[in-house]
Write a structure and sequence with these properties.
mainly alpha; two-stranded antiparallel ribbon; 14 helices; rod-shaped; DUF445; transmembrane helix; DUF445 family protein; transmembrane
């Protein structure tokens, strides 16, 4: 066999390989324009550095319109598998909390710090104090208590001689006096009394362990409630959130902010094998064309 007849096909393979290798390299290189004097050499910079803005915009459109659009996100987050996964995570969290023997005070201190915990306690106590005090005042408890006292007195003296003297003209001033004094007392002292009561209860609550608190919680109902809230948030607000985030724009800006070398690494991480196959295909095609050339 004469090996020299393979020189043509081998040369064609080398030419095809080198040509495609140069073509692939020209996707990314040179990064900057190359000039001879004042004339820019054609095809410099490379295709991707020259069209980086278009490349970024295309990726942004793919991300925002095809990969992470509201419909896909909603379907994914509301899928049975995702809800089952969230349910399992909640079970693990509940189990961990039910075994947690640290006090609520210690846990809050670990999570938010001492100063934030003090402010949280102050805000809770102050808010509840104001709401409960205002409710007590607007309830007109003096009227309620005075009416109950009058009813009790009338009931006690019913059928006795004393009932003759406790007619409405006698009882009414007494009832009004009780009503006024009770209402005045509540207006003057309700806030302090309620504040002390709430503060004491908050302190008791803070000293309880996490596990003891969970003894009084139906975790099955709690999990279902959390999942219902999750479904509601995804159904009602996911589209608004994604629209406000504008993921297409974020992806475009991120790619634009990347160094050209980073863009190259990104593309190669996805298409390295495919681009390598293109280069090797050039060698195969060159070799085949060389063989065909031998026939003519």
């Amino acid at each position: 066999m004469q090996w020299n007849i393979l020189i043509g096909p081998a040369l064609g393979a080398v030419i095809g390989y080198v040509t495609n290798l140069i073509a692939v390299q020209m996707l990314f290189h040179p990064i900057n324009p190359v000039y001879i004097g004042k004339y820019r050499i054609p095809f410099t910079p490379g295709i991707i550095p020259r069209g980086k803005a278009r490349f970024a915009k295309a990726i942004g459109n793919v991300v925002g319109n095809n990969l992470l659009n509201p419909v896909i996100i909603k379907e994914t987050l509301l899928s049975p598998d995702k809800e089952q996964e969230i349910g399992k995570q909640l079970d693990l969290i509940f189990q961990k909390l039910s075994d947690d023997n640290t006090t609520l005070e210690v846990r809050l201190n670990t999570m938010i710090g001492d100063s934030a915990q003090i402010k949280l306690e102050s805000d809770i106590v102050e808010t509840l104090t104001q709401k409960i005090s205002n409710e007590l005042i607007t309830m007109n408890l003096g009227q309620v208590i005075a009416a109950e006292v009058r009813s009790a007195v009338v009931e006690k003296v019913q059928g006795t001689m004393l009932a003759m003297f406790l007619n409405p003209s006698v009882l009414e001033p007494i009832e009004n006096t009780i009503k006024d004094r009770v209402n005045i007392y509540i207006e003057e002292h309700a806030e302090d009394k309620v504040n002390n009561l709430i503060r004491d209860e908050y302190t008791k609550l803070n000293q309880q362990t996490i596990s003891s608190l969970f003894d009084h919680i139906n975790t099955v109902e709690l999990k279902e409630t959390i999942l219902k809230v999750y479904r509601m948030l995804i159904t009602d607000y996911s589209e608004k959130i994604l629209t406000s985030l504008n993921l297409s724009k974020i992806a475009e800006e991120k790619v634009n902010a990347m160094d050209t070398k980073e863009v190259e690494e990104l593309v190669l991480s996805i298409m390295k094998k495919e681009l390598g196959a293109v280069v090797n295909l050039g060698a195969v095609i060159g070799f085949v064309l060389g063989l065909i050339n031998l026939l003519f």
